[in-house]
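User: I'm designing a mutation panel for DUF2147 domain-containing protein and want to avoid disrupting the core. Could you give me a predicted structure to guide residue selection? Please restate the sequence first so the numbering is unambiguous.

Assistant: Good idea. Sequence first, for numbering, then the predicted structure tokens:
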Amino acid sequence: MLFVSAPAHSAPAADAVLGVWLDADKRGYVEIYRVADVYRGRVVGSTDGVVKNDVKNPVDAKRSQNLLGQDIIKGLTYDGQGRWQGGTIYNPDDGNTYSVRLTVVDANTLDLHGYLGVPLFGITQKWTRAEKPK
């Protein structure tokens, strides 16, 4: 008998997504953190040192609020296969909220896939691990 074995590939641990990430546009820092079994992401800084107000928010009263400290990723859960899904991401650039799933590519790279309705019709961005801004 001939046995063929594939190389073992293990999914990242559930907390591999935790930490500070620089967005694809290299403008903002988002810290992904966990509360119980749910993962969230909050704005913790910007590359130019100025965090803007949420001027595109669909709720008029929130347009004067600063984005610093605001949760923009909510409701993610780890699927055990290297993906965090079932959550949403708020995009302050257009004021819209999208479904989101995250995949850790390696220790310093995260694929963030945002979509409306069906994941097939979304876009994937590469985020990179960063140090928390001071």
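For picking mutation sites, this is relevant: Residues 65 and 84 are 28 Å apart (CA to CA). The radius of gyration is 17 Å.
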